[in-house]
Amino acid sequence: MIGEVLALFSAFCWAANGAIYKVGLKHGNVLSANFVRVLLTAFGFVLIMLIKGELAEIVERADLRVWILIVASAIFAFFVGDILYMNAIRRCGIARAVPISLTYPLFVALWTAILYRKIEPNVVFGAMLIVLAIYLIVEDRNVNPSSSGFLFAILAAIFWSFSIMIVKRLTMYLPAEAIAGFRFLVVSAISVPILARRGFYLNFECFKWMSASSVVLIAGNYAFVLALSLSSATKVSTLSSVYPIIAQMLALKLREVITRRTATGTLLAFVGVALVMT
Prior knowledge:
By secondary structure, this protein is an all-alpha fold.
């Protein structure tokens, strides 16, 4: 029961993060904002490990294979995936970027089917509903968002699915705070040379919102990884997938246009994911 509650809590955090991204990106560029966000989040997790007195022990017992998995999962999720997601939000809004990116459990199911050569009917039906949901959201002619935003959202889902497969494996070797914290540190380190080349542009307003985002990320990612260690990936993915419904309510607060097609597509996406992950 604790794992399921943590998964639901992570869903609320991710939905709230979408709204924070939307506001914060009005005052800065994606790369600079993402760097501040992940760096502050990394420091938060390192502080947790220091308080618990486990940092030195974790670093000592982690072998090369574990570090490779950490680096790979970090790049897929917090660097490539999140930057794609932030660009999607900027181009088509959270009411559309969030439900489209919800397709990541479908890709998780696909990779699992390929690895274990097992395809179930519920996966097929769930996939059909998710494709229909994407069609309803993308083809909504009542609004005119950038088509590139939809592509970024789908690509983000694919990279997130890679990361989830790796994180589930990592829970066998490391505690939740170590997995989450080290991944954020990897992204921060990768971002430094990129920012040195392209320039760092951030005002106080953006910093304020990205700081708030880091607090939400610490809570949400800690809860999600801990949930994966306490419960099955199927249950955790399903429960955490309710965040688009929450995001729709947040979008109303941000005065985004939510049409009947968009709302219907979000609902179908949620049902489709539930079918895929059962």
